[in-house]
Amino acid sequence: MASTTETKQKKMLILKSADNDEFEIEESVGVQSETIKNLVEDGFTFVPLPNVYTKALIKIIDYLKKHANKTDSNDEEIKTFDKDFVNTTFDDLFELVSAANYLHISCLMNMLCQTIADRIKDKSPEAVRKIFHINCDYTPEEEAKIRKANAQAFEGQFDESLD
Amino acid sequence: MERIDVISKLPVPILDHILSFLAIKDAARTSVLSKAWNNAWTSLSCLDFGYGFYHVIRGVVDQILEKRLNQKISIKRFKVNVPNYVNLDSWIKILVACNIKELYLEVDTTYAYKKLPEAIFAVKALNVLCLCGFWIELPSDGIKFSSLRELHLVESVFDELLIQALCISCSDLEVLSLRGFYGPISLQVARTLPKLRTVDLVACPLKFQMVDIAAPNMKDLYVSSSSGFLNVIKIISCKTLQHLNLHGVAVTDQWLENLLPHLPNLEIFYLSSCSLLKTMKISSNRLKYLKVVSCGNLTEVDLDTPNLLGFSSDVRYGKDIVDPLPTFHLKASRVLEASLNLIPETLDTNWYSKLTRSLSNFIHSKTIKLCCDDHKVLVIPKELRESLLPPLYDTNILQVKLHDRSNYSVVDIIDSMLWISPQLDTLSFGHTVDLKTLKFTYRDAADDEDEKPCCASLPWKCWRHELKKVTLQDFTIMELLELRNYFLTNTDKLETIEDPPGWFLRTSLQYLHT
Description:
The complex is a heterodimer.
Chain A (H helix, E strand, L loop, with lengths): L1 H6 L4 E5 L5 E5 H4 L3 H8 L4 E3 L5 H15 L6 H12 L3 H14 L2 H13 L6 H8 L7 H10 L14
Helix pairs in contact in A: 4-5, 4-6, 6-7
Chain B lengths: L11 H8 L4 H6 L5 H8 L3 E3 L5 H4 L2 H11 L6 E6 L6 H9 L4 E6 L6 E2 L12 E5 L1 E2 L14 E5 L5 H10 L5 E5 L6 E4 L8 E7 L5 E4 L6 E6 L6 E3 L8 E5 L5 H7 L8 E5 L6 E5 L5 E5 L6 E5 L5 E8 L9 E5 L5 E8 L4 H12 L6 E6 L9 H6 L9 E6 L7 H11 L5 E5 L4 E8 L20 H4 E7 L3 H14 L5 E3 L5 H10 L1
Parallel strand pairs in B: 1-2, 2-3, 3-5, 4-6, 5-7, 7-8, 8-10, 9-11, 10-12, 11-13, 12-14, 14-15, 15-17, 16-18, 17-19, 18-20, 19-21, 21-22, 22-23, 23-24, 26-27
Antiparallel strand pairs in B: 24-25, 25-26
Helix pairs in contact in B: 1-3, 5-6
């Protein structure tokens, strides 16, 4: 069965980023995104992505291509690829997570959110704020109130390191 | 300059998704980060109370559930581990009202199993149910689940009627996993579950006798029994099965022979502790991975599997181990990777000859992995090498893993491995985490001018006369010195020995030449 589809011309899609760059990819690669899949099922071959910028789209296409070629034997290779993929700046991670959310790529979404969550795990709120550059928009009174409402969560020792 | 707070500007569903990977205490602490995070926390849909009974005792679970109920927030996932005495009824009531999708309940079973509240069976929208430590009875009102996709029952007591009723009502079931259960003596799944993909029956109890599954789309089946008496497995109508793993099951030659033609899609087949099996004949174009371990009565293995990529097995030897080496016929992929676990009780001449014969079964495999406790298992005595033929002269990559961390001589191992496999490109060995690697480069044919081959009687190139370059990685300085001497003494065309990235040898070789 695989051989008959291979001999046919591969179906291609064009993805257009928010900054108007166009990328041609195989349909089978693109449909790992639920959003793209729905459009393809409605007959689209040109897919504008107004919420995804070129920089993130290039990385995501890389990811989709790698994962489209998943077999039993390249498990390790994909793991290494994934590890490198998330090893980037937080600004890039947040850009990617928004894009993955918009494109509905659940395995990528899980991997990115897990990566971010791992940096929050066991940390003190002060450390998390510094790691992610979070601006605290509470007044000291408001903050004290929130702490009190979730008092149990603040009992014990937490990791203050920023790594 | 103040950096822009990008993360707090992410939409709540994304923050919710991030928090869903955290245990409740970590998630609750994010409430204090900023207002956006507090919003995400108060509406968090995945509540994982983790291990430890702390939250339960302090009433934290009740408090958080009440809040969700009052604000009409739906709960996607609820995960808790509780002591046996906790009353679950009020929680389940709230969870039902909050439209729970994935429920994970675990109770401590030190003293007794806990009776499962019947109210759970009324949660229509449930997708995933995972119960551990419960006594589960068929509810008087029947089972209302209509969208259950995954059912995991662990360390629990129930009977066949319950499973039958579940199989009838949960027509969307994809995963059925029963681990360490008590009660049923059989599992029968008729054709009522078209979506069933995975069945795990792990640590089946002594009385459990029969598995009979007719799931037209099943992909994975794992059955493990500690008794070894589980002898009826009927799966011939599961034609889509790709992955079959049987442990401690009384499979017979006849059963295997009858089964395999019915499973044309089987790609991964693992058999362990199946002591009734005597002959194993497999003919398949699809099979990619095969593992046969602790099947001590096997006398014949015949594999016509041209696409086999991985084969693993064990080689045992000892005074009480009668098993002769099975006769072995193998037709596999060119890139087959064979892994052998070597388990001799004593090391004598017979062991080394058994080892050599076992290895020679994989003469055409490019990659071999060997695993053993002690390096002596692999160091074939020099006097024996005279009377035996190197078993793996066609192998390019050899990896040896040693469990024992005690000292060993790298030269002894390398010398023996190069006898076993005289044309290696890569040899790596060591403990599971820190492997030391040697890479070999040989002379080209073009380098051969009019010199006559050194060991013309042998069908393989002899590394002693052909080796041009050795690269050593991750060795200690003492080992590097020993290996340098070894290779300088035992080769005659060697041009380079290097040890990147340290380049210790380059320095020392320079000294040697000056």
